[in-house]
Each structure stands twice: as C-alpha cells, then as structure tokens.
C-alpha cells in the first residue's frame, strides 16, 4: 500500500493486521463471547416501520448524551409494507422476509426519544424527502455539539456512489417530547480514493461507509473512523505470510481468500468543525480474513483504545469462519499496533442455534452493547423465522485488558444516557 504523510507531518502508521491465524481462534458458542438467546416472543418498536442500525446521540468523546432528560437515538428505518401487493406471496400473505431483505434500498434516517432510555417514541424522519442527495441514507453518527442543542449528523449517502456526508441541525425539547429542526443542507465530505480505499470502479462489492467521528483523548484532535476495503482491483490482493499469520501445519492454503479485503479506515480533520478531512491509511486490515468490518467505533478505557467493528459469517474468507456479531481489537495508542481481543477478535457473537438473531452491535463506553433483532426461529418446530426489525435486548460486557466477558442482559433497546446536557 502506498503510504501518505498526514497534515501534521507525522510518520505514516502501518495498518494492524487481523490475520487468518487470529481468526482460527474464533469459536462460536463460548458463553463469555456469545449473546444470550433472543426469545421469539420479542416486542416490536413499531408495526409501521422496520429499524436496524441504531445510533445513540453522543458527544465527540463518546459519551451517550441525553438533552433536558430526554434520550435520543437515530435509526436506519424503512416502511413495512403489509398491504402492498408487491410484498404478497402466492397465497396472498404478506412476505415480510422479502420486505425486510429489501430494506437497505430504501433506508432513511429516523429518530426516537425516551425519558427512560427505553420504550422509545417515534419522532419522525431526520431529513425531509429530497434533502439527502442519494436514494439511501446509511449509517453514521449523530454528535451533540453544544448546549444550544446543535447536532452534526455524519452518515453515508449511497446510490449512486457512497459518500461520507454530514448535515447540521438542532434538537429542541419540551415537556412532552423532542423534535429535530434544520438538517436541510447536506455537505459531502469524502469518498474512497482508490489508493488507500477501494472504489466502486475497482470492485462493485466495495464498502465505504459508516462514519464515526471522535476526539482522540490523548492528542485532542478530531478524527473519524469508517468502514472500507483495501484499495486495488478485485482479485488483485495478495494473502501472504503477514496476512496468514502463525498457522498450524495444514492451514497454509488460503483458497480464494484474496477476495476478502475489509479494513477500518481513519481520517483526520484539518479544521475544528470537521468540514475538511484527510484520509489516512487504514488502522486495521482483514485481507484474506473477512470482507466487511462495518460500523467501526471506539471505547476509550484505562488509557487504551478499544476498537470495535461488526462482521458477518457470510463475509469471512475461505477456511476461516465466525458468528455474526461484534469483534474488537485493542492498542495503547490510536495508530496501533492493535491486537485482537480474546486472542481471536470475537467479543459478542450470535449463538449457532440462532445465527441471525441480532446484528449491528454498538459497544458503549459504559459496557452496554445495543443491537437490533434480525430473525429468530419461531413456531412449534422452530422452522419458521420471525423477522425483527426492532431493538434487541441490551447486553452488558466487561472489558479487562485484552479480554472481554458477557456479564449482564438488560431490557430491549436499553440505551441509558451517560450524561445529561441542559439546553440553553
Ligand atoms: C450494518 C450496515 C451498515 C450500513 C447499513 C445499510 O448493518 O450494513 O454498514 O450502513 O447497514 O443498511
């Protein structure tokens, strides 16, 4: 990879590698890294809309923030179509699975509010129709900027292309609820460059999305994580000694794993407001291991950088596998080197009996992990699937050095604030 020097003249870092040897240590169903079973009788947040990726309002330091006692979350959201002829099956019944699977193409950003950090009330769409420049409003991060209630929503504008964008608005509270105002002018920030981060022209299955801005607790500067793939034409990547790692005899064959090229990207802001960004080389690459490291985010704890990212079974490369869930890596400084938590990287995976029960986990600095319910086996024989499109039970994990442990389970969609801001 071609390295660059960043705006501040620092020596470029080397990306840390999630190797095939690390991934061989991933084991589903270890109780310390497995999400408790989600029961098929879960409640749904709304019978009008599906929700999936959940983005709690927070500050630039990562603290989940309420305003005037109101918690606020943003969600990727799509209408449910129980009466749309397009989603009826041959027998005239609603084909919810097809409706759910189609949701990415019509994803919109919505917000919800709550006094209790659960029992969310629907606020509505964040941006009016026509404000966002593309068909899909994909994941990102809402940042509370100040006591005036200003919010920068960073997100991904997808189809055509994939651009990291931001839009500014304001949160307004009353005794009865929360509304969002503004969010009218979307500013494009950057796209994949083809030198560090793969472009659509290099690979039609490229990923470039999910901005997560933050202030580095050590140097105080503004950075942003995002999901990417390592630049280069599809099929041209090399899975060499470094990517393979220290594997036992018999595990040298990498098959077609050159097609899996996920990375966690990082950019640094050239200005205070985060309007002008420079992409830096990835923090972490998974070439030969996995094709998607989605929604990367940090927890800063004990002076360390805990980097979390979500990934799927279906995006693993030949010869390695693991559950859908959240994976993690830890370093003593922002630019690494990062080592996989629990040896393997796996932090919280779905149990093998319910491999699709949850996804899009977000580890919060208080050790609480939120996710959404995808689908859970249901019916007497367990052969039906109940589609979720709603908040999963929150899980508590303990982060200790290079290890993590599942220690608690809470209510559906429990996202308590870590601090409250009184608006002026
Ligand atoms: C994770 C994800 C994100 C993306 C969104 C699209 O669930 O794949 O990476 O922004 O969903 O719906």
Architecture overview:
It is a single chain. The protein is built from 3 helices and 25 strands. The protein has one domain: Tachylectin-2, Chain A (5 Propeller). Mean pLDDT is 96; it is low at 1-7. Helix content is 4%, strand content 44%. It starts with 15 loop residues before the first strand and ends with a strand.
Which helices and strands, and how do they pair?
Blueprint: E1 16-17, H1 20-24, E2 49-56, E3 65-67, E4 71-79, H2 96-101, E5 108-114, E6 121-125, E7 136-144, E8 150-158, E9 162-173, E10 178-190, E11 209-215, E12 222-229, H3 241-244, E13 261-269, E14 277-287, E15 294-301, E16 304-311, E17 325-331, E18 339-340, E19 346-349, E20 358-363, E21 368-378, E22 384-391, E23 393-400, E24 403-412, E25 419-421
Parallel strand pairs: 1-14, 3-25
Antiparallel strand pairs: 2-4, 4-5, 5-6, 7-8, 8-9, 9-10, 11-12, 12-13, 13-14, 15-16, 16-17, 17-18, 17-19, 20-21, 21-22, 21-23, 23-24
This protein binds beta-D-fructofuranose.
Residues 52-53, 76, 104, 107, 138-139, 156, 209-210, 227, 294-295, 359-360 line the site of beta-D-fructofuranose (FRU).
Strand content: 35-45%
Shape, per Cα inertia axes: globular
Secondary-structure element pattern, one letter each: EHEEEHEEEEEEEEHEEEEEEEEEEEEE
The distinct bound ligands, ions and cofactors come out as: beta-D-fructofuranose
**Overall number of structural domains:** 1
Helix-residue proportion: under 10%
The end-to-end span amounts to 48 Å
Provide the gyration radius in Å: 21 Å
SS-based structural class? Answer: mainly beta
Uncertain residue segments: 1-7
Which CATH top level class fits?
Answer: Mainly Beta
Judging by the overall fold, what is the CATH architecture? 5 Propeller
Mean pLDDT over the full residue set: 96
Number of strands: 25
Largest sheet, in brief, is: 5 strands, mixed
- Widest sheet: strand order? 1-14-13-12-11
Kindly identify the CATH topology: Tachylectin-2, Chain A
Q: Superfamily at the CATH H level?
A: Glycosyl hydrolase domain, family 43
